[in-house]
Protein: 3-isopropylmalate dehydrogenase
Amino acid sequence: MSEATITVLPGDGVGPEVTAQALKVLRAVEKRYGHTFTVHEGLVGLDAIASEGSAISEATFQTCAQSDALLFGAVGALPAAERRAGGPRPELALFRLRKEFGFFANLRPVRPAEASYAASSLKPECLKGTDMVFVRELSAGLYYGHMETVPGKPSEIRQRDGRTEAVDTLLYTEEEIERVVRVAFDVAAGRRGKVTSVDKANVLSSSVLWRQVVDRVAADHPGVAYEHMLVDACAMRLIRTPAEFDVIVTENLFGDILTDEASMLTGSIGMLPSASLGTRRTAGGLFGLYEPVHGSAPDIAGQDAANPVGAVLSAALLLRHSLGLEREAAAVEKTVEDVIRDGYRSPDIHEEGCTVVGTEEFGRLIVDRLEARP
Ligand code: IPM
Ligand code: MG
Structure:
């Protein structure tokens, strides 16, 4: 049996609805497999700004620091009128957690279930065999390049020589590239043994350095095949021949964009989970932050219409990477697949002949089957 401390940060919009399902699933795992999870909850995003004055308070940050894993919902969606220049922004909670806990590697698996191929806008024959993992660099690059500022700080728009201008800096050190590329080669070694490194080396200096580092790291992994691919070509191939990819490693902003694109292979961004990892060890693995790839989706918040799969699969990644509970993680993933195979769908992946269920009900179906597993 395992003991672990988990901090849940539901956040904004649909965040609380989907993390509630993920937590239900973790509680079911706890009961079914005889573990003890101590769960704390903290405010992040808009509620934290309203009641504690910043997107994440010092107290919440300390609670996180003392945990084995963080289960995160979503932040954002401040109405434009309230986005005052220089005012606190909900996304800062995420940027602070990523940066200060050193979560430099963001794993985003994309594996469309055969039963829901019809939910994708791609033809089923294109999707066949698609099973890839993105390793997105998460704590450097354009999001953090400007040393004296923080990401998303709107005051960066400035006046110079009578013009209005803004600047963002794409900066990578060799170390920042090397550590994330090593993660990608390690992940590939445990899978089909192929890394695609994505860059824009025909234009960007940081990409030229990125390629050099990849070539060097690859030399330490003779058993893993690798290739370099330009980001524009990758964007095309992802929807032309997605099954060719195994592990894709890329810098922060390219990874942000390509993973939204890749989510459409599953039919909905609501399906994708993620794990953000650094180097701090826990009893069972690595300290990490787990969140669905989707955002706060304010247009459907509070309607029991959000897809909880991304959040529930994020909980599975939490079990695997931070708690070392592989059997339990695989059981959650299999159960989600079973529920989909049996024809249940959230509205975003609805197709003819299937039963549309709400967020709560989808969560309950997963929990019931998990508890009934032999
Ligand atoms: C993601 C999100 C975030 C990002 C937003 C909410 C700032 O899009 O995790 O992909 O850009 O990193
Ligand atoms: Mg994104």
About this structure: The pocket of magnesium ion (ligand 2) is lined by residues 256, 260 (CB under 6 Å). The longest helix spans residues 15-33. Residues 1-126+268-374 form a domain with the Isopropylmalate Dehydrogenase fold (CATH 3.40.718.10). The two ends are 18 Å apart (CA to CA).
